[in-house]
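ok new one. same drill as before - structure tokens go in, u give me an amino acid for every spot. 364 of them this time. try not to just spam alanines like last time pls lmao
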């Protein structure tokens, strides 16, 4: 089936979809994987066993709970909210898709920071919405005035990623509070990396019926492989978005994982304290090196710029260290993003960067 598609079959695909670039990540094997902002720490073996045993006791021939009240209630309680305020997703990505399916059908605009996580724009466009780009400032901070103006126009939904991927920039709850008051549109805050910073935008949900907050188990909780995330919103908003979320989107295995995490709430924070400290230490070390810029971010990664980014990427890869080349994102020419790993991995990464820069300096 590798021949070109005959006839006009491709015309059946919507133009908005054909224009999209596919969301891809080159599957490069590496000994030290610092390219996807995952946790370097796996779930402890006894907890994995607990999940497997509990899952084994469930009937696999039956659909999972249609409305897993205990799970939704447990997640809601973490934020002082109820079960009806929670939507559970197969990763928060699925909820991003559901939110835009429910909200942007007829050319509705969504304002996005630039640069940010690429999936937002893809999902807006795939749902026939339009994107308004609000560039970060040259120092990669949120441009509060531009966001305030956009909120005052009241035309576009606002999506804020805080801390932002791939820059680590944050927007404060104080500013989000203000934006929610200014606009009748939705304000969506993706807090995938919340545990690595100091902000918790979910505290604003009691005050703002137009706010949606997204959380994931893929980063601090360290369960990227399980594909679990959730959205928090006013119960009526949550009910409407829930209509376009597929039924039984999280299987019985995923539900048992959430139950286990809720029984061991320390898992929600994961190793975030250790990883934050490691991030700050690594950043301080990188700042001492002759790099062009090391960006101060609030997530479990560091963004830095060097005119030798492409060479450094390959130098690291040859030593088994995979980072993310984000040089093609707007504003991020010559930038690499490195996730925080174990102490040994961070040390090896730092050593390799030092070696590379020393070689560059020695070169005539
Ligand atoms: C900002 C942001 N949101 C969401 C996700 C994906 O989350 P999930 O694994 O829950 O789908 C990522 C993953 O990299 C991300 O960076």
């Amino acid at each position: 089936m590798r021949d070109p598609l005959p006839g006009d079959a491709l015309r059946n695909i919507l133009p908005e979809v054909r224009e999209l670039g596919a969301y891809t990540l080159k599957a490069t094997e590496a000994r030290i994987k610092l390219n996807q902002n995952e946790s370097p720490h796996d779930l402890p073996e006894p907890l994995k066993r607990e999940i497997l045993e509990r899952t084994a006791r469930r009937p696999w021939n039956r659909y999972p709970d249609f409305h897993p009240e205990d799970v939704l209630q447990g997640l809601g309680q973490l934020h002082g909210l109820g079960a009806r305020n929670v939507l559970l997703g197969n990763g928060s990505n699925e909820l991003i898709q559901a939110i835009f399916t429910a909200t942007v059908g007829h050319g509705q605009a969504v304002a996005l920071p630039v640069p940010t996580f690429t999936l937002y724009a893809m999902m807006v466009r795939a749902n026939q919405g339009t994107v308004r780009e609000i560039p970060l400032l040259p120092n990669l901070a949120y441009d509060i005035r531009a966001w305030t103006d956009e909120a005052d126009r009241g035309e576009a939904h606002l999506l804020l990623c805080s801390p932002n991927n791939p820059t680590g920039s944050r927007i404060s709850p104080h500013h989000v509070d203000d934006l929610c008051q200014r606009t009748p549109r939705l304000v969506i805050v993706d807090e995938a990396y919340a545990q690595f910073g100091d902000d918790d935008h979910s505290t604003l949900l009691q005050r703002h019926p137009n706010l949606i907050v997204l959380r994931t188990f893929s980063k601090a909780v360290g369960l990227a492989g399980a594909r679990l995330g959730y959205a928090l919103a006013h119960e009526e908003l949550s009910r409407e978005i829930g209509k376009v979320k597929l039924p039984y989107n999280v299987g019985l295995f995923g539900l048992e994982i959430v139950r286990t995490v809720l029984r061991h709430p320390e898992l929600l924070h994961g190793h975030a304290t250790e990883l934050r400290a490691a991030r700050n230490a690594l950043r301080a070390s990188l700042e001492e090196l002759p790099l062009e810029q090391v960006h101060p971010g609030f997530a479990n990664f560091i963004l830095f710029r060097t005119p030798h980014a492409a060479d450094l990427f390959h130098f690291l890869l040859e030593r088994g260290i995979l980072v993310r080349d984000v040089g093609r994102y707007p504003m991020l020419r010559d930038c690499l993003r490195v996730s925080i790993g174990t102490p040994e991995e961070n040390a090896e990464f730092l050593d390799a960067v030092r070696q590379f820069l020393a070689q560059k300096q020695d070169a005539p």
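The chain has a mean pLDDT of 95. and btw Residues 45-268 form a domain with the Aspartate Aminotransferase; domain 2 fold (CATH 3.40.640.10).
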